[in-house]
Amino acid sequence: MENILLKIRKELKQNIDSRTKATGQKYFKEKVKIYGVKTALVTKIAEQHDDEILAMPKNNVFALCDDLWQSDYMEESFIACHFSFLIRKIFDSSDFMVFEKWVKNYVSNWASCDTLCNHTLAAFVEMYPAFLENLKNWTRSENRWIKRASAVTLIIPARNGKFLRDIFKIADSLLTDDDDLVQKGYGWMLKSASQAHQKEVFDYVIKKKAVMPRTALRYAIEKMPEDLKARAMCKQEEK
């Protein structure tokens, strides 16, 4: 396991791109720790170790992921997300505690949050939907990344038409949050849900638009026809 970690870090250092390193920070409001490796290359570096990861006991994989997360390098967090998603077929219900620990202790930017939630956590929740209640509890956190995670975990399931009632409950809980990254997170969740449930999401937006922040509303209606967008945005521009 330690050998894999050393190889990964050596490969990341060998593939540092000065331009990527110089421009990487501009996409984030908070300070991020990056090597400066292009995302496509990070994925390739991770994939080179897929066979080794699949041959490891799950607890060892999670321990390796933990080491990667603890470095605080964004690229290492992406590789941790890749490895945890790779072994999704052997998830069991107790694994939620591991994923929750990563969200609460290690996630420190939107890119790491979304990568973990869109894949590993989304796959887990689809396997164990009882944990939707835990996502609802996350909406009450003081931590912006935990609140964002409660919504973006459901992006892929929402796109596939799943969990609409739970999606609306999470949106209700986050509705007037003043953090734009939380607003974008639940707005994105609603946008994804609109691909399978356009009428229901439109009706929800119309019902809530008097109090829904414009950022969230714009995200939610992005995939809708122009006439529906116009109706949703009517009088919203004044907010």
Please provide a brief summary of the model.
With 239 residues, the chain is an all-alpha fold. It has two domains: 1-90, no CATH class; 99-239, Leucine-rich Repeat Variant, CATH 1.25.10. Helices cover 67% and strands 0% of the residues.
Could you please describe the fold and organization of this structure?
With 239 residues, the chain is mainly α. It has 2 domains: 90 residues, no CATH class; 141 residues, Leucine-rich Repeat Variant. It is 67% helix and 0% strand. It starts with a helix and ends in a 6-residue tail after the last helix. The mean pLDDT is 96.
Comma- or semicolon-separated keywords:
239 residues; mainly alpha; Leucine-rich Repeat Variant; 2 domains; 16 helices
Number of helices: 16
CATH architecture of the largest domain: Alpha Horseshoe
Average pLDDT level: 96
Q: Pick out the low-confidence regions.
A: none
How is the secondary structure organized here?
Layout: H1 2-14, H2 18-23, H3 39-47, H4 50-54, H5 58-70, H6 74-86, H7 96-105, H8 110-127, H9 132-138, H10 144-152, H11 155-159, H12 164-174, H13 180-194, H14 198-208, H15 214-220, H16 226-233
Helix pairs in contact: 3-6, 5-6, 6-8, 8-10, 9-10, 10-13, 12-13, 13-14, 13-15
